[in-house]
Write a structure and sequence with these properties.
alpha+beta
């Protein structure tokens, strides 16, 4: 089991050019650094929350076709980040595997439950009502989470339980996901694969 959990992913298509550098669990060894520039301010804000509360160092940049709309940039950055997460984690050996968290943001409350299962499955219910938050379409916010989860190869349930403000609802969801993932990837001190199958 490698002590370093880092990844570098570069993903270039006709629609986006993305670079991701990710280190999981950096606060015990080095100073956490976060630099994000997707060209979509609220998306940057969500990724920053995910990294900050997940205790990741994350450098993510994207040049995308924002003259068309936000879809490709939002989706593709989530895919690239999920790929980086899967690469950085490596073989899921000696980790807790499961994690859960509740995170409030003022009147909003979100719950996230995570299984580092090797089987991508996403259930995301944010209950957003606005058309957009800043320059990010609200329909893309759950899609970002679903795209990240699928590329990461994990099972996640994220639900916003209450809240009136869509900014608060979305941010509490990303924070809850961050804290739940942080618990799930925490090292146990063993070299065991946490599965009755012996493989994940």
């Amino acid at each position: 089991m490698s002590l370093e959990r880092t990844a570098v992913v570069e993903r270039k298509t006709n629609e986006t050019d993305i670079k991701v550098r990710l280190e999981l669990g950096t606060l015990t060894t080095t100073e956490q650094t976060i630099e994000i520039n997707t060209g979509i301010g609220f998306l940057d804000h969500m990724y920053h929350a995910l990294a900050k509360h997940g205790k990741w160092s994350l450098h993510l940049s994207c040049t995308g076709d924002l003259h068309i709309d936000d879809h490709h940039t939002a989706e593709d950055t989530a895919i690239a980040l999920g790929m980086a997460f899967k690469q950085a984690l490596g073989e899921p050996r000696g980790i807790k595997r499961f994690g859960h968290a509740y995170c409030p943001l003022d009147e909003a409350l979100a719950r996230a439950v995570v299984d580092i299962s090797g089987r991508p499955f996403a259930v995301v219910d944010l209950g957003l009502k606005r058309e957009r938050i800043g320059a990010l379409s609200c329909e893309m916010i759950p899609h970002v989470l679903q795209s990240f989860i699928t590329a990461a190869g994990i099972t996640v349930h994220v639900d916003v339980l209450r809240g009136d403000n869509d900014h608060h609802r979305a941010e509490s969801a990303f924070k809850a996901l961050a804290v739940a993932i942080r618990e799930a990837v925490e090292r146990t001190g063993s070299n065991d694969i946490p599965s009755t199958k012996g493989v994940l």
